Structure formats: C-alpha cells, structure tokens
Amino acid sequence: MRADHSTTFLPDPRTFQRITRALATGMFVLLSASRLQAQDTGSWNREAARTYLDGRMNWWTTWPEAARDHQTFCISCHTVLPYALGRQSLRGELGEKAASPLEDKLVENVTKRVRTWNEVEPFYADAKAGVPKTVESRGTESILDALILVWREGKVRMRGWHWKTCGSSS
Fold it and tell me: Which of 136, 140, 142 is nearest to 118 (CA)?
C-alpha cells in the first residue's frame, strides 16, 4: 500500500530516487567539465567567469518568471546552484576578500525562505503542476537551501581538493 505523502515533508521513495539521480548526474557533468577545462589552463579567464556568473545571476534575480511570493526568487538547479558554488570558489582566484553583493542577495533570499518556510508557497505546487509537485518542490528546495547555506558558511570541506583540476595533481 502506498503511503500518503501529501502531508509529510519527505518525498516518496521514487521521487527521492529521481532527485538523487538528477543531482548525481549533475555533479558528474560538473566534475567532468571542470576536469576538461583544467587541462587547458591557457584559456582560463577569471574575469570573464565572474562577469558571466554575476550577469546570469543578476538577470535571474530580476526575471519575473523566477519571482516568488514574499519578494523571493526561485532557487533553480540550473542557474542559482551553479552560481552559489562557482562564484564563491572564484573569490580566491580573483583576490576578493568578501562575498559579492549578488552572493549576499542569494543568501538573504534563501534565509528568508527558510525562516518563513510555513508561510511561503512552494516553488511549484500541486494546483498548477499536479500531485506530487508540492512535495517534490519542497524536497528539492530544502536540499538546495541546505547546500547553499553550508557552502557559504564554509562547512563543506574537501581536504586536498583543488576545484579547478577536480582533485587531480596533474
């Protein structure tokens, strides 16, 4: 008998498996791309990376389709998460000592949504997308929120890991 997950926070096992597979696939692609890029260090342009990431994030935070209730914006897997992870990593490469204004805006957005969790609407709801979209949306958002916040606080540590070469010593 299938459990009723409509009132629980955790997604059903099949949804959780799909989310896990999607995140694993994304990480594999990200790590593979980083490894390929690291082999051609002559084309690495830190300023261009900053300009691209900041421009994309600025656009996303002001795009009406990304707007959500309580003056927040959607924490997307395709735009916001790469920005949150990549932009912070660029800081050392660029000699920056503090987070950029857009990084601060992102953390303020995530913090606001976490603090008002019972008041804010899910990014995608059953009413528009069908069951079990609310549960899937809440599950995905909670994982992304947690990752963004712990990454920002420096709680994620990869000893000896060099992000540009995917840990390779060559």
Answer: 142
**Cα 100 to chain centroid, rounded:** 16
pLDDT tens-digit series, residues 73-104: 999 888 999 999 889 889 888 999 999 999 99
On whether the CB atoms of residues 44 and 89 are closer than 8 A, the answer is: no
Over the stretch 28-81, which tens digit does the pLDDT of each residue have? 666 666 555 555 556 779 999 999 999 999 999 999 999 999 999 999 888 999
What is the distance, to the nearest Å, from the Cα of residue 89 to the centroid of all Cα atoms in its chain?
14
- Which residue ranges make up each domain of the chain? 46-156
Task: Work out whether the CA dihedral 72, 134, 124, 16 comes out positive or negative.
Answer: positive
Q: Where are the alpha helices (DSSP H) in 95-132?
A: 101-115, 126-129
105: left (phi over 0), alpha (psi -120 to 50) or beta: alpha
Question: What's the CA gap between 78 and 76, in Å, rounded?
Answer: 5
